[in-house]
Design brief:
Length: 466
């Protein structure tokens, strides 16, 4: 049977996890300090280690480092009560297999353990697997507490250990360039980060910007000019709005990715590319490929690792901390002392649809801080959110009510729905509108997991999330 070592200073958590995991068929040992846990692992290595970050005698990251020195392929699932991005990225980059927040959701933990054991089983079949050592690093300012953002933080930590291409997708204003900068900072912080907006430069100039040109290659080329790929050295070239690049340039970019070299405009010498290439778009590249507007071979080259940033309207729980963070930043820039927004304004923010996402939120706050007469921003400080926006909010609220009412709408006029029909529709609605796993959905529905499984089978509902 697989063995698990739980290292946590909270005795009740150790006992609870020990009872649960033993019932699941695992051999479990526990330790209340980092030193005790390390000693137990050295004496008898466990298949999976569940490690708390905050320990009384030593930092959890130090324990993680020591465990990896003992066995570089050890599967460590880190747990913590702190929901900050930097800790999450540190854990993943330091070599943790997964990262779970307290209070521990047993369904999430069970899924992580099974993934760790499966990964370990596959690794035993592969010889020579190398893991890059952890490094110290700093991260950018990304606010996010939901499941989607936590997964993005994990992905950032993982891709920061390599130099593979990354495709960042999301609506305008969601922070695609910020994500790219964080990855760059965690990979090659001392090298240049060069951003190029592909939609802002005409094709002929864009080619020269990317690849450079030789003297006399075209009218006005009075001297050799180095392109962005050369200037970036071993850093990052970030191609924003890659969907706007012409088919002709797409072919040349594909060659760069395949051969890691290029020729300057008007030149014959091969120039080696050492920079990492990251791209971003607010369009669906897969659809563009199907429509013949984007090269499929380039798409697959760029889409090795994809990060999809959710729009602000789907992560409303992040709006209050985003406002706190942005106001702190704005106060420093404008030498203001704004302490927050009124309850009325916060309610409007929480209901607003945010078509411009975080960029729109920041711009609204900046303008409000400039004209504000008090330390709390009220409705009068946001004239932009006027009647049109209020009407839009009310329209959205009515749409929500209409959608909820649709659950009880009979399929035939004059016919009432059965309880089973209402139940099926509601379960489908909860699954569709949330990103929660089975355990969390059971909490929303107020039913046990076995009951939920039976209802999925009863109504023939497909559920792919664990």
């Amino acid at each position: 049977m697989p063995s698990i070592l739980v290292i946590d200073d909270d005795v009740s958590i150790c006992q609870t996890l020990e009872l649960y995991l033993e019932e699941e068929g695992y051999i479990v040992d526990t330790a209340q300090t980092g030193t005790e846990g390390l000693n137990k692992y050295v004496q008898k290595p466990a298949d999976v280690v569940i490690l708390d970050i905050r320990l009384p005698d030593v930092d959890g990251f130090a324990v993680l480092e020591d465990l990896r020195e003992e066995n570089e392929n050890v599967k460590v699932i880190m747990i913590t009560a702190f929901h900050d991005m930097e800790t999450t990225i540190n854990a993943m980059k330091g070599g943790a297999f997964d990262y779970i927040h307290k209070p521990v959701n047993v369904d999430e933990l069970d899924m992580a353990i099974k993934k760790a054991l499966k990964s370990q089983e596959m690794e035993k079949k592969i010889e020579g697997l190398l893991t890059e050592p952890s490094r110290s690093f700093r991260v950018g300012d990304i606010i996010g507490t939901g499941n989607e953002m936590r997964e993005i933080f994990k992905t950032i930590g993982t891709v920061s250990q390599s130099r593979t291409t990354v495709l960042i997708q999301g609506e305008s204003g969601t922070g695609k360039e910020l994500i790219a900068k964080v990855i760059h900072h965690n990979t090659s912080p001392d090298e240049p980060f060069i951003a190029v907006n592909c939609s802002a430069i005409v094709e002929t100039l864009l080619e020269s910007e990317l690849f450079g040109h030789e003297k006399g290659s075209f009218t006005g080329a009075i001297a050799r000019k180095l392109g962005k790929f050369e200037l970036a050295r071993y850093g990052t070239v970030f191609l924003d709005e890659i969907s706007e690049m012409s088919i002709n340039l797409q072919a040349k970019l594909l060659r760069v990715l395949q051969e890691m070299e290029f020729e300057r405009v008007g030149g014959k010498d091969k120039v080696k590319v050492n920079a990492r290439i990251m791209t971003a778009t607010n369009k669906d590249l897969k659809t563009m490929v199907n429509e013949g507007k984007f090269r499929d071979d380039l798409y697959y080259r760029l889409n090795i690792v994809a990060i999809i940033i959710p729009p602000l309207r789907t992560r409303r729980q992040d709006i209050p901390p985003l406002i706190d963070y942005l106001l702190t930043k704005i106060n420093l820039d404008l030498h203001k002392k704004i302490i927050g927004v009124s309850d009325e304004m916060m309610e409007i923010f929480m209901q607003y649809h945010w078509p411009g996402n975080i960029r729109e939120l920041e711009n609204l706050l900046v303008r409000a801080c400039v004209v504000a007469k008090g330390q709390v921003l009220g409705k009068s400080d946001f004239p932009e959110l006027g009647k049109d926006e209020t009407a839009s909010i009310m329209k959205g609220a009515r749409a929500d009510l209409d959608e909820t009412a649709a659950i009880f709408k009979p399929s035939e006029p004059g016919k009432l729905l059965t309880l089973d029909e209402v139940e099926e529709r509601y379960i489908r609605k909860v699954i569709k509108e949330t990103d929660k796993n089975k355990g969390e959905i059971c909490e929303v529905l107020g039913i046990s997991r076995p009951t939920f499984e039976r209802k999925l089978e009863k109504y023939s509902i497909t559920f792919e999330r664990d």
